[in-house]
Amino acid sequence: MIGLGESQQEKTTDSRALEAVENALTSPLLDVDISEANRALINVIGGTDMTLREAEMIVEAVSSKINPNAHVIWGAMIEEDLPRNQIQAMVVIAGGKFSYLGDGKGLFNENGVLDLGIEFTD
Questions:
Q1: 68: which residues sit within 8 A by CB, 6+ positions away?
Q2: CA–CA gap between residue 120 and residue 122 (Å, rounded)
């Protein structure tokens, strides 16, 4: 799963960090259960007023929604070209489950390849 979120509102630092990560993790286009995900890559970019605590809050919010033993790698940077009140969060999560695939049994062929029943024609 890849999620992108952003906050541009004039809010307290806690609120805008949480808004950015919530936007990254929730999308009407994604129906992914990340509660058992075992890996996450998080990138936080903010304007010159972003604090390290805001970046840490984003990482903590993602970590609280995935497996407690998950491997999390994160980084944060200040982008001087961004407006002072803007924070962006990009989250890449591996190990999530798609509810529309069910338990996944019977979807893999004898070679271990996921078979969704889609046939391509020439």
A1: none
A2: 7
Kindly state which CATH superfamily the domain 2-101 is placed in.
Tubulin/FtsZ, C-terminal domain (3.30.1330.20)
Report the length, in residues, of the chain: 122
Q: What is the pLDDT of residues 52-92, one digit of tens each?
A: 999 999 999 999 999 999 999 999 999 999 988 899 999 99
Global pTM value = 0.77
Taking residue 71's Cβ as centre, other Cβ atoms within 10 Å add up to 12
Kindly report the backbone phi and psi dihedral angles of residue 35, in degrees, each rounded to the nearest multiple of 5, phi listed first: -60, -30
Contact, 58 vs 10, CB < 8 A? no
